[in-house]
Amino acid sequence: MNCRKIQRLFDELAEGRLPEALAEQLRRHLTDCTDCRVAQQRAAHLRRLLALKRYEQPAPAYFSGFLDEFHSRLQAETASPASLWLRLKAQWRDFRMTPPVWTLRYGLVGAASVLLVAAIASWMIAYQTKPMVAERTATPVGQNVKVSDSPAGGSHWVAAQNGAPILASVARDTTTDATTHVVLVPAEARMKTSAPNYVLDHLVITPASYDGPRVDF
Amino acid sequence: MKPSRKSEFETTVLPESGTAPAVERETDAHHEDDETLVARARRGDAKAFDVLVGRYKERLYATVYHMTSNREDANDLVQDAFIKAYRSLRGFKGNASFYTWIYRIAVNRTINFLKRRRQRQHFSLDDVDNNIQTDPDFVELMSHDTPRRQVGLNELQQCLNEALQKLSEPHRAVVIMHDIQGMTHADIAKAMRCTEGTVRSRLFYARRYLQALLSDYL
After folding, report:
1. What is this model's ipTM?
2. Do B128 and A94 touch (CB under 8 A)?
């Protein structure tokens, strides 16, 4: 047990409310530790000093009119009851000390700020990235998926092997033997009407040979 | 500190007529335990609640006074606490004693009041009883070789109150309940609705702060 924990048990030690083994441990520590011994003496001094405040007392006749005042105030309050909101607020204050919401105010404000920033950031990202077109179609197995620009129709583009659409999900209906594809295609991909040209198509690649002339060192 | 639930003066002999005369009932009320008085007050017997007010007003006043260092505020707050208790009597479940319940109401009202009053601090102190002059602790303090051993009583009172007012409300409440009122950690925990560990911790930090503030007297 460290000094700090021991110093928190001084009251129990003084009042004899500690188990004997623990009390003995504390007493042994106090004989060895000067800091704790001084702290104990200072705590005892402080308690005795504060106890002198008990001598601050009102005059003997101070409470003579207390009950009458209580009755008159009670009558006044009964005659003009507070609004429901005020009563609920008072109830909360009286029996819940301070509202937990109030004690956690900094945490709640922080969490709300983080959520707000996250919401703004995600909205900005969604706004700035290229729009995606998604369409859910049911097609027989093995066929391609048709993707249109808008639900109303217009230009169509078949997401064949050349278009390289992004396949988001595929679900297969066993009863109709149909597969449902959800296809997400980048906007610029939809502009393409012909097969793309790959850079490597234009290159004449000569296979490398590792059978070179032998060099002897 | 906590009153016994069963008063030693409680009579077990009921009058043969079934209902005692009014004067006799009123006199007996002062000897009845809290539970009986609360039950009677719930049934609309205002006199029973008056007995409870008379029983606890001074103890509540002392705690609230030490927390506010202002006797007018203390009087108002104790009145408020009793009014609140009277109006909420139906909601009193009896899980804790009446004293713990009313004490909690008074302390909570005081803490909320002090939070609102933080800007305006005005002392209005009670007089110090002359018996302090014979208190062994006071005699020792005065004879102790401290820088302030020539301190006057009023100055000491002022310093103690100022130091206490520098603590936060929950820390001050714990110090007052323990070191001035002499309540146990368990009773404080019940009144403050916290754990005994929290009480110990608050006492530890409050005392450390007070020791720094009152180092001239220690």
Report:
1. 0.77
2. no
Question: Chain B interface, mutation test: which of A62, A70, A102, most B Cβ atoms within 10 Å?
Answer: A70
- Asked if B132 contacts A52 with a C-beta cutoff of 8 angstroms, the reply is yes
Does residue A143 carry a pLDDT above 70? no
Chain A to chain B, count of Cβ pairs less than 8 Å apart?
122
Residue in B with minimal Cα distance to A61: B58
Q: Is A157 helix (H, G, I), strand (E, B) or coil?
A: strand
For residue range A92-124, list pLDDT tens digits in order: 666 655 455 566 778 888 999 999 999 999 988
Contact B175, B210 (CB under 8 A): yes
Chain B CB contacts of A43 below 8 Å: 207, 211
Parallel, antiparallel, or unpaired for β A153-159 and A145-150? antiparallel
The confidence band for B215, taking pLDDT boundaries of 50, 70 and 90, is confident
Buried-state track A47-56, b at ≥16 Cβ within 10 A, e below 16: bbbbbbbbbb
Cα diameter, chain A: 122
Chain B interface test: which of A9, A55, A72, A86 (most B C-beta within 10 Å): A55
Q: Which residues of chain A have a CB within 8 Å of the CB of B58?
A: 63
Domains parsed from chain B with CATH numbers = 21-125 (1.10.1740.10), 135-218 (1.10.10.10)
* Binary contact (A74, B210; C-beta < 8 A): no
Instruction: Report the residue of B50, B68, B79 to disrupt the A interface, i.e. the one with the largest count of A CBs within 10 Å.
Output: B79
CB within 8 Å: B83 and A73:
yes
Question: Residue A130's CB: how many other CB atoms inside 10 A?
Answer: 8
> What percent of chain A is predicted at pLDDT more than 70?
51
B142 touches B150 (CB < 8 A): no
pLDDT higher at A92 or A69: A69
**Cβ contacts of B125 on chain A, cutoff 8 Å:** 56
pLDDT at B207 over 70: yes
Decide if B72 contacts B122 (C-beta within 8 A): no
Determine the Cα–Cα distance for residues B151 and B44; give it in Å rounded to an integer.
53
